[in-house]
Amino acid sequence: YSCVICHSQLVSHQDVISKAFQGRYGAAYLVENMINIMTGKDEDRQLMTGIHTVADISCRICQTKIGWKYIKTPKESERYKLGKCVVEKSRV
Length: 92
Known about the structure:
With 92 residues, the protein is mainly beta. The chain has strands at residues 16-23, 26-31, 37-47, 50-59, 65-72, 85-88. The protein has one domain: Metal Binding Protein, Guanine Nucleotide Exchange Factor, Chain A (Beta Complex). This is Protein yippee-like.
């Protein structure tokens, strides 16, 4: 998968964990092992599954926001997301 703006490679097909996630702009993917990204500042954000500490991620080449990375979660059932990223389908 590559950036919709600059076509820089971001994540391999085999690193997509789930295609059943919801992003800010609609459908999204849960992925791991991303490349060519920049990570923003950590912030607490209300998501569909509760409050999580996340950081926005952007394409390193063109700075287009493409999703977020999970940093912390208070829920044990959500810990599988830690260190992984949600990527907006409309941005890749």
